[in-house]
Write a structure and sequence with these properties.
Layout lengths: L17 E5 L2 H9 L1 H14 L6 E7 L2 E6 L5 H13 L12
Antiparallel strand pairs: 1-3, 2-3
Length: 99
């Protein structure tokens, strides 16, 4: 056994590999009910934009959803994700909170 190997650990707190979308609480459940569909659409939009980022899953948070990605999203990736959520039916721009 090699005793010089470092143990890889995780820490509590936010990861930089995510996009957090503030949204009113009643729509968090709406999004989570079809999270797999939203992940697919987001990945399609990112792929069309020639991004190297893809979403892995969506996680609910209090008053927001967190889109966990494979890498740190660039501002252009965050813009694509934000625009997607603003286009979802039954969620209008007044119900999106400012980050």
């Amino acid at each position: 056994m090699n005793r010089n190997k470092k143990i890889q650990t995780t820490t509590k707190g936010l990861s930089r590999k995510q996009a957090i979308v503030p949204i009113i609480e009643k729509h968090v459940n709406l999004i989570m009910n079809k999270a797999n569909v939203h992940v697919s659409f987001i990945n399609g939009l990112l792929k069309n934009a020639k991004s190297n980022i893809h979403s892995e899953f969506i996680w609910p948070c209090s008053g927001r959803v967190s889109i966990v990605t494979n890498n740190i999203p660039a501002p252009s990736d965050l813009s694509i994700i934000e625009k997607y959520f603003k286009l979802i039916n039954r969620i209008n721009n007044n119900e999106m909170l400012s980050p």
